[in-house]
Amino acid sequence: MKPLKSEKRSFIILCFFIIISLCIYASINEARLEDLLRFTRGCDAANNSSSTSSFSSLSTGGGDDIRILIGILTLPDQYLKRHFLRLVYGVQSVEGAKIDVKFIFCNLTKEDQKTLVALEIMRYDDIIILNCPENMNKGKTLTFFSSLPDLFNDTDRPYPPYHYVMKADDDTFLRLPNFVESLKPLPREDLYYGYVIPCRSMDPFKHYMSGMGYLVSWDIAEWIKESEIPRKHFEGPEDKVFGEWMREGRRGKNRFNGKWSMYNFPEPPTTCTHELWPDTIAVHLLKNQVKWIRTLKYFNFTASMKPSKLYHIP
Ligand SMILES: *[C@@H]1O[C@H](CO)[C@@H](O)[C@H](O)[C@H]1NC(C)=O
Ligand SMILES: *[C@@H]1O[C@H](CO)[C@@H](O)[C@H](O)[C@H]1NC(C)=O
Ligand SMILES: *[C@@H]1O[C@H](CO)[C@@H](O)[C@H](O)[C@H]1NC(C)=O
Ligand SMILES: *[C@@H]1O[C@H](CO)[C@@H](O)[C@H](O)[C@H]1NC(C)=O
Ligand SMILES: *[C@@H]1O[C@H](CO)[C@@H](O)[C@H](O)[C@H]1NC(C)=O
User: Fold this and answer.
1) Where is the protein found, in the record's own terms (predicted)?
2) Would you place residue 189 in the very low, low, confident or very high pLDDT band (cuts 50, 70, 90)?
């Protein structure tokens, strides 16, 4: 009996060290807490000498998840906007997908930003500061896409780090579960997804995808980094210019037109607007709080709030 006991003890010690190193690994890699927990449970069960096989449950749990990076291009001073969007995206949860929403801007320009943005990063870690002067229509989109391969090239990440990368506006509301559902059947290579411009067109090869939010597969971000085509020509309306790169580089053989699941807010009506309706992925041009609230209310966005005696919202 004795040797068995000491075997058990050293096994428990081994488990302990593995857990500690996993914790360190997890904090570095954002490995999923679930996997960690599942693994610790494996160790617990192994306390029972007959059930060591549960170790096999340590694996790439969620390895089949779609990984999506949503980059919201915004400006350093938009603190309240970021606060609001963190709420809007933070309360949506999606099965079968790992979605990172990050705010993208160029170099900070003011003294107070160095403190305020640093605080946000410490608390939320959802900001990417690109190496560029803040600009509109002068290549911020190019800097964003072409920086991604190096920003996410850590060897301990899976490859590709994200299957898809989206560029979105800060006045766009994305319904993440519907968004992910729409992506599931689509190819993970050479994909260019969005709301095709011109507004009346339903042909995804017509011109280009609207800046409200377009998505490409990771190979296109790599192509943008490597190719001369975007570098030759990046000034001008960024979504249009992006579409021109796709055409000139013969990229985006796979296209998906999200219209009319993606549209502009119904008011004021134009050829790009649509009534709010259940089959919605994205609503764009939410330029003020009234429009945001009308949209969130329409989708019963707060209906899943837990009841409690601590508050009462009629
Ligand atoms: C230990 O193993 C026995 C036999 O396989 C099983 O019946 C029992 O439920 C296990 N106990 C724990 C705590 O896992
Ligand atoms: C593990 O085993 C020890 C004795 O070997 C026992 O006291 C303890 O309750 C067990 N823990 C679990 C979780 O089964
Ligand atoms: C942005 O800031 C970094 C360091 O803070 C600096 O090295 C770089 O030259 C700046 N880039 C631009 C385009 O201003
Ligand atoms: C990632 O890219 C950076 C910048 O190009 C480079 O310095 C670094 O060596 C790369 N790391 C890996 C693991 O490829
Ligand atoms: C919101 O909830 C109402 C009442 O339950 C329901 O009739 C409506 O269909 C829901 N709207 C959406 C977009 O799901």
Assistant:
1) Golgi apparatus membrane
2) very high
Cis peptide bond upstream of 260, omega within 30: yes
Inform me whether the pLDDT recorded for 26 exceeds 60: no
**What is the pTM (predicted TM-score) of this model?**
0.75
Neighbours of 291 (CB within 10 A): 17
Protein residue whose Cα sits closest to atom 9 of ligand 3: 131
Question: What residue numbers bound the domain in which 148 lies?
Answer: 57-261
Q: How far is the CA of 237 from the centre of ligand 2 (A)?
A: 65
The verdict on residue 288 lying in a domain is: no
- In short, whether 132's Cβ falls inside 6 Å of ligand 3 is yes
Nearest ligand 2 atom to alpha carbon 5: 5
Say if 105 falls within a structural domain.
yes
CA-nearest residue for atom 12, ligand 3, is 132
Q: How far is CA 108 from CA 117, 129, 135, 149, 168, in A?
A: 9, 8, 12, 22, 20
pLDDT tens per residue across span 46-95: 444 433 333 322 333 356 799 999 999 999 999 999 999 999 999 998 98
Ligand 2, atom 2, lies closest to the CA of: 47
In a domain, 255, yes or no: yes
Read off the CATH number of the domain in which 161 is found. Answer: 3.90.550
